[in-house]
Amino acid sequence: MVLAWLATGFYTVRASEGEIGVATALGRVVADHVPPGVHWNWPWPLGRAARVKVAEPLTMSVGYRISDDLRGLNPTPAETQWLSGNTNIVEVRAVLQYVVEDPAAYLYGGAEQAGLVLRRAAEAAFTEVLGAIEVDRALTSGQNVVLEKVKAATNQRLVAYSTGIRVVTASFKSIDPASPVRSAFRQVQDAEAERGRLVNAAKGYSNDLLPKARGEARGIVTQAKAAADARIQATTRRDRSVHLGARRVQARPQRTRERLYLEALEEILPRVRVVVSDGDANGKDVDLHLLQPP
Questions:
Q1: Which CATH superfamily is domain 58-177 in?
Q2: What is the pTM of this model?
């Protein structure tokens, strides 16, 4: 009889089910993380062996009840509504996934109430986090921030309550403004999205136009500088020529007059007909003053 009784103390922890065993003797936990395999513990009533699935995540809803949602029942406002930091009402439906982190604490700290404790801890976390953020950010870009803060705050409470569970993921099933103002809020969001689109389009046009305009401006400035340099050089050459001409006239006035006279002839003679004769009808010589400088 004793051997048969002792034989009832053998138990199996199954790895395929993701189980961890917890063994107790005389009401005290003697092994809180029994690995998969065949083990022995004092049989009942001296001892007890329990198995807990720790690998499979469990699900808890916040803001609604999964069973009511499957039946098409809407949650009450008290369940689904929270107050944001700027005193706007936000309707939240969230899903938390959690795992058993401490099998002993989970089993002997109230496994039957672990889900309810998690719901209340998450509701308190949502109240704290949403009460510190404006509704616009909570409904748009701040959703991930809200979820991360809620997860962290919920886990802190679960540790304080010694539940043995831990939230691993948090996600929104829906997060919306209150039903009476939902349509108006959507219109505001659409208008802000359109404004963002127009601003981005204007920035794109500006980014495309400004480099071209700057390039054209640099080209115009370069051309103006080149024209200014050419004019300065021409003015310098003119002033130099005038100065040298005046100096030459002062130095050799007769030779200058002869050179100017010859240059004038070079321009005039190709356009006139010139006849050279050795005398007139009376046999007198012709004095061609045109060919002599004055």
A1: Band 7 domain (3.30.479.30)
A2: 0.57
